[in-house]
Amino acid sequence: MDTLKHYTCITGASSGIGRAAAKAFGQMGHHLILVARRKALLEDLKKDILKDQPNLDIVIKVVDLSIPQNAIDLYDDLRPFHISTFINNAGFGNYDSIARQNLDKVSRLIHLNIETLTILSTLYIRDYQDVPDTQLINISSRGGYMLVPKAVTYCASKFYVSAFTEGLALEMQEGKHPLKVKVLAPAATKTEFGMRATDTKQYDYDKQFSTYHSSQEMAAFLIALYKSDKVVGWIDVSDFSFHLGGPLFKH
What we know:
Helix content is 43%, strand content 22%. It contains 8 helices and 10 strands.
């Protein structure tokens, strides 16, 4: 393991919150490992970050993480790097009634949102739970703490992310391990999420939501969570304000 350089690894880095987060961590001088399916977008992102931060080392990994074995293979490829922050951001949603939902899409959603996140979190914890100044941050959703009409399967997958991550944070605290585990729960954020969730080429956030955040705003909230000693960063959907606090589930 190369301990001279510390990296922040971000999955789902090619667009949306992941892309904005990569830029934000790059601005703070973090070396980066950027993971996503779309190579061209990752290469464009790398060039964009290096314009302002030319001394950074930016590693690109082109992987389809909806295939769980790929998550195991990816982590094996990352073992030579010292990853001080691992951000499980990759995921997607689905807007439809349960009776009408596409089972092939839902299967991929469950593999990515739940199984892959669990695999990568587990492997990272095994290696880094006793390493000081390390963090695991999993991206959930406000839909991981409440139910949204015609997004039940997606919300259920994010309930898992929230519960798993909060439980893991408590496990680290009880075991007095230095690694910090945190969960970010965004509300509506203008990204490609809407198009993929509805299987359309256009999605009008202004029509669908009275209020929403930009991916840059959500990346700023992610940085605030990263810099804090709190477990959960979440959006109050009554006014879209951001809050930091302890676990939200009863424990």
